[in-house]
Amino acid sequence: MQAIRVSEHGGVEKLEQVELPRPAPEPGQVLVRMRAFSLNHLDLWVRRGVPGHKFPLPLIPSSDGCAVVHALGEGVTGLGEGDEVIVHPGASCGRCAPCLEGKDQLCSSYHILGESCDGLAAEYACVPAANVHPRPEAISVEAAAAFPLAFLTAWNMIVRRAQVQPAETVLVHAAGSGVSSAAIQICKLFGATVISTAGGPEKCARAKELGADQVIDYKAEDFVQAVRQLTQKRGVQVCVDHLGGEHFEQSIQCLSWGGRLVTCGATTGPFAKINLAQLFFKSLSLLGSTMGSRGDLLRVTELLAQSRLRPIIGRVLHGLDSVAEGHRLLEQRQVFGKVVIRIDGEG
Predict the structure, then answer these.
(1) What digits encode the pLDDT tens for the residues 38-63?
(2) What number is the average pLDDT over the span 145-161?
(3) Cα(294)–Cα(107) distance, rounded to whole angstroms?
(4) 100 Cβ neighbours under 8 A, 6+ residues apart
(5) What are the pLDDT digits (tens) for 61-105?
(6) What is the C-alpha to C-alpha distance for residues 121 and 321, in angstroms, rounded to an integer?
(7) Which residues lie across from 59 on neighbouring strands?
(8) Where are the domains of the chain?
(9) Which one of 17, 23, 243, 321 has the largest count of C-beta atoms within 10 Å of its C-beta?
C-alpha cells in the first residue's frame, strides 16, 4: 500500500510517500480502507518535531478520517466488511476507571493516532474496533474526515472543562482554525455570546458568517483593548485559547472576575507569563484540555447529522502526493477551516 511517512523531523520535504505492506488486523482491531483524512496542527508538530518530546519515528501521521471496513480481526463484532465508518482519533485501554467512567482521554495509556502510533495517511490502516463508528448518510465523506479531532477537542473544552452557560460571553481565538471554528458553533449552540479574533478582513467576515457576534481583526487592533470596549470593561467569562506564548498573558487580561481560560495547545509557544496576583485576586481559573471521550464524539456526530453543527472545510485536496501542499496551507495560515485529503479517487 502507499502511505505518507515521517522518518526524521524537518520541513515538508520530510513527508515521504512510501510503499509498505498492507497491515493485518490483530485481535480486537479492524483493517480499514481510507477514503479521506484531514490535517491538524498536530501533523505539523509531528513533522517538525517538538523540543523535549520524542515521537516514535518512522511514523504515519494524521489522526482522523473516513474509511470503509476492509477486514475484521479476531473477536470483533458489530461491524462488517464494507461498512462506512468514521475513525475516532484517540485510543485508550477501555478497562481502567477513567475509561469506564466515560473519561477515556484521562486513561494513562491514552494515545492519539498519528502521534504515538501509526495514523491514517495511508491507503489502509489498522485501528482498534472501538475507534470506528458508522458514518451517518447525512455526513459527507469530507465532513466525516474533517470533524473528529477538532470538534471533540472543542466540545471537551467548552462543555466539559469551561462549562459554558447560556448568556455568558466567550472569547474564541483564531476563528479560522479547526478547533476554533468548531468552538464558535458549540458556544452558540449553548446560548453564549461569542467574540472571536481572526487575521484580516476576509477571515473576520467568515467568522461572522459562522456565528460570531463580534470579530476582532488582531492584525489591525489590540484584542485586549477591543474586548474591554466590547464588554464595557467587564471582560469575558470564558476564553478559548490554543495560541499560548505571549498571547496567554493577554488572554488572561481579557477575563472577567471569576473568569475561566481553557487551553488545548500552544501554537505560538509553550511558555507564558502569569500574574499570580491577578489570578487569585480575581478568582480566575486556568483549565487544560486534551481531546475528549468517545461518548462525546458520538454526541457531536449526532449533532452533525442533524445539521446543528458543521465542520468548516477550507480546502479539499486529492491524492497522497498532495499532503505536502496541505501542510504548506496550514503552516502559512492560508485556509479558513480544515484541509481534507481525498484518496479514494472520488469527490
Answers:
(1) 999 999 999 999 988 899 999 999 99
(2) 97
(3) 12
(4) none
(5) 999 999 999 999 999 999 999 999 999 999 999 999 999 999 999
(6) 11
(7) 6
(8) 2-146+311-342, 151-288
(9) 243
pTM above 0.90, yes or no: yes
Place of cell 496550514: 330
- The Cα–Cα gap between 151 and 146 comes to 9
Looking at the domain that runs over 2-146+311-342, which CATH code has it been given?
A: 3.90.180.10
What residues contact residue 277 under an 8 Å CB cut-off, 6+ apart? none
Amino acid letter for position 245: G
Query: Which helix (DSSP H) or strand (DSSP E) does residue 186 occupy?
Result: helix 178-189
Three cell numbers written together for 264: 488545548
> Nearest Cα to 149, choosing from 106, 181, 118, 179?
179
Residue 20 three-state SS: coil
Indicate the CATH number for domain 151-288.
Answer: 3.40.50.720
Cα dihedral across residues 336, 189, 205, 237: positive or negative? negative
Cell of 135: 458514518
